[in-house]
């Protein structure tokens, strides 16, 4: 057994049992500090005597204790004994070599590779930390447990310098891919998507896991004050502060490329933006991803949602006809309002916009966007669309 302090990172190696636990305790208490991080990548075994040292250590520090890179065997010891409730314990990530693996999908956050006939891996772009990947996996698992039809998530892994999430391999295609090859199915699959969204919005979220997206949108609206006049900021804020708090699951990025058709049933994928909040957050975002794009940037529509502008419009109409029923026209008006409102938040959301780019964007929104429009959403709520 050995314990060293490597620039604040405590590393423990070898085996810890009754014979060396007093020495282990002495060294660990000597290194004790608030918010300790302990690397267990070379820890081979720990007995109950060694675990009791962690109990004393926990009582002697004011902050958190994190044990990282634990092997599956070491992790199991901490979990079975209940120590994962006392300190933060994370497993050493399995490494997967994706050399030669088929790329079956690509999006803004990374690429999806086929590992074998039963599993795929979503490899996130450089810069996305393990916490981001773990969050998406946790969101997907929480949605799945709540009954949302989505892919089963397995594990977070390393792929070279990047992190990835392993999912079940689905014998499926994205709705976009099916509509692109069979455009006559746009209305049929659009109706299925509308029914799927209604099912999602009837699902109660685990609010201890998922983020409150209405609070997030309110924060974004308030953050636009640095770019807009006071009156303009209040106009945007009024939309989000009018909405009531809900514990409804929302997908966050609902469009034809993020839904898959499997054995004639639809399931959600790309769960990184899943949260809870008012359904209009989802419907507005879907309008922005499909209709706004189809009308304002038709040339790049297929790149982002997988189908051309004409098919986007047909699919969107079918989605909203199914979702809103007899109130579809009113529903589409609301969806447009909240879609354009989300679009207006772009300078706050994307840090890449600077200087003249922000000024030009805000001017466009003032002339042709939500800031140029008058709207009254109160009647929609009074008439119980939601």
How are strands sequenced across the largest beta sheet? 6-10-11-9-8-7
Structural class: alpha/beta
Instruction: Using the coordinates above, name the CATH class of the largest domain.
Output: Mainly Alpha
Q: What fraction of residues sit in β-strands? A: 15-25%
Principal-axis shape equals globular
User: How much helicity do the residues have?
Assistant: 40-55%
Low-confidence runs? none
Give the terminus-to-terminus CA distance: 62 Å
Rg estimate, integer Å = 25 Å
Rounded average pLDDT? 91
Q: What is the number of independent domains?
A: 3
Question: How many β-strand stretches?
Answer: 17
Give the CATH topology of the largest domain: Transferase(Phosphotransferase), domain 1
Largest sheet entry: 6 strands, mixed
CATH architecture type of the largest domain = Orthogonal Bundle
Count of helical regions: 15
What is the CATH superfamily of the largest domain? Transferase(Phosphotransferase) domain 1
Walkthrough of the structure:
It contains 15 helices and 17 strands. The chain has helices at residues 21-30, 48-60, 72-80, 130-145, 175-181, 186-200, 213-223, 230-242, 279-296, 301-305, 309-324, 328-344, 346-349, 355-368, 378-382; strands spanning 2-6, 9-16, 36-46, 65-70, 88-91, 94-95, 102-107, 110-114, 119-124, 153-159, 162-168, 173-174, 211-212, 249-250, 259-262, 265-268, 275-276. A 6-stranded mixed sheet has the order 6-10-11-9-8-7, covered by helices on one side. The protein has a 5-stranded mixed sheet with strand order 1-2-3-4-5, covered by helices on one side. Strand 1 and strand 2 form a beta hairpin. Helix 7 packs antiparallel against helix 8 and helix 11 crosses helix 12.
């Amino acid at each position: 057994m050995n314990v060293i302090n490597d620039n604040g990172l405590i590393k423990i190696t070898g085996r810890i049992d009754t014979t060396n636990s007093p020495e282990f305790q002495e060294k660990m208490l000597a290194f004790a500090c608030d918010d300790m991080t302990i690397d267990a990548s070379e820890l081979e075994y720990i007995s109950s005597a060694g675990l009791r040292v962690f109990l004393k250590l926990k009582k002697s520090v004011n902050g958190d204790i994190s044990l990282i890179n634990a092997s599956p065997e070491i992790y199991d010891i901490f979990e079975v004994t209940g120590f994962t409730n006392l300190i933060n314990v994370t497993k050493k990530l399995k490494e997967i070599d994706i050399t030669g693996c088929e790329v079956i999908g690509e999006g803004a956050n990374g690429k999806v590779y086929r590992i074998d006939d039963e599993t795929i891996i979503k490899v996130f772009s450089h810069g996305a930390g393990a916490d981001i990947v773990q969050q998406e996996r946790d969101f997907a698992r929480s949605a799945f447990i709540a009954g949302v039809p989505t892919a089963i998530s397995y594990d977070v892994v390393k792929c070279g310098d990047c992190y990835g999430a392993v999912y079940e391999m689905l014998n499926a295609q994205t709705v976009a891919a099916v509509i692109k090859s069979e455009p006559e199915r746009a209305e049929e699959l659009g109706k299925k998507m509308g029914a799927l969204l209604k099912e999602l919005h009837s699902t109660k979220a685990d609010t201890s896991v998922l983020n409150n997206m209405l609070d997030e949108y309110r924060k974004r609206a308030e953050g636009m004050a640095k770019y807009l006049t006071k009156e303009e900021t209040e106009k945007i804020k009024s939309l989000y502060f009018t909405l009531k708090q809900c514990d409804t699951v929302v997908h966050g990025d609902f469009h034809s490329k993020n839904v898959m058709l499997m054995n004639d049933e639809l399931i959600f994928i790309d769960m990184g933006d899943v949260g809870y909040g008012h359904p209009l957050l989802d419907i507005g975002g879907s309008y922005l991803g499909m209709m706004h794009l189809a009308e304002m940037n038709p040339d790049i529509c297929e790149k982002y949602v997988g189908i051309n502008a004409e098919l986007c419009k047909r699919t969107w109409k079918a989605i909203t006809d199914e979702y809103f029923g007899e109130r579809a026209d009113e529903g589409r008006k609301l969806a447009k309002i909240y879609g354009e409102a989300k679009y207006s938040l772009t300078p706050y959301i994307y840090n890449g916009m600077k200087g003249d780019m922000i000024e030009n964007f805000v001017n466009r929104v003032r002339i042709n966007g939500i800031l140029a429009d008058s709207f009254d959403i109160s009647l929609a709520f009074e008439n119980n669309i939601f």
